[in-house]
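cron nightly-structures :: item 1 of 1
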Amino acid sequence: MTDLYYIEDDPDIACTVKEYLEQKGFAVTICATLAQAKHALKMHVPVLVLLDWNMPDGRGDSMCRWIRGGWKELPIMFLTVRGDSSDIVFGFENGADDYVVKPFALEVLYSRILALLRRAGNVSEQYLSCGGFRIDQNRRSVFGSSGEISLSAAEYQLLLYLMENKGKTVTREKILEQVWDVNGNYVNDNTLTVTMKRLRDKLNQPSCLKTVRSVGYRMEDTI
């Protein structure tokens, strides 16, 4: 299924859109507040965000700016209750890719979603998230709650491999094979120990990075 987030505080509208889009093959997660949506995005990045303009804890334009701060290419579609051109222009200025004015026909919304996804592609695949940290694979950048984190090439590859296997315990042998030996660079076991220590220090000893004693490591969501 193709997953998307629908940020909407009206339960009737949200449920109607969710039921329709799920019949079309989408997996829809409804977020009733901006805070809930931010938490969901830190855990997982969908292929698209549907964003209502007026929310109980803020406006859609502020949410759009927040999303763009971490996921620059993630498609965002505003759903605005008014056809006010100033709202629409303001939305685009803050990073929206498209908009639909309420009330809207579900068929129209569906066709606009498909068109936007065709233009954007599956952007969500470039982002990996875990425990409040995220990787932008296209830019080879790592971000935490306080901004971008500078990592060496080995530290980045180690974190990337762990995030690609989020929720799984990976052995030290497998990490050495995939992160170093795959490039034909023989290293000893101490190299992983040192690199892991440096990575943990730069991530401020994150609780999401677990040591599985005598086996290896595991990344898992903790927030």
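cron nightly-structures :: done
The chain has two domains: 2-121, 127-219.
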